[in-house]
Amino acid sequence: MDIQRINLLKKIMALEFTCIDFNLYLDTHPEDYRALADYNAACEELLAAKKQYESLYGPLTNFGSSPSPKAWRWIEEPWPWERTF
User: b/e per residue, 27-63, with b = 16+ CB within 10 A?
Assistant: First the structure.
């Protein structure tokens, strides 16, 4: 697996963690508008990173979350759970 692909996956994982962490914080601090703005920014960055990854390497998830416009790319290797870093 090439280094660009690995780095993009690591970025996606870090952004997912950030969004989950903000989500948990906002559950107990719903009036923290700075945290809400940071959460929204992280979510936008995550969506952009996922879109970039999927346009270059194929879907990250299945079952309707990742369209496959040209060919059915879900069967391409490596499968998400087979990736190593």
Answer: eeeeeeeeeeebbeebbeebeebbeebbeebbbeeee
> Do the beta carbons of residue 83 and residue 1 sit within 8 Å?
yes
DSSP letter string, 46-78: HHHHHHHHHHHH--S--SSSS--SSS-GGGSSS
**The dihedral formed by the CA atoms of 84, 13, 44 and 61, expressed in degrees to the nearest 10:** 60
User: What residue segments make up the domains of the chain, in order of their start?
Assistant: 3-82
Q: What is the pLDDT of residues 8-25, one digit of tens each?
A: 999 999 999 999 999 999
Cis geometry, peptide bond prior to residue 80 (ω within 30 degrees of 0): no
pTM of the model: 0.76
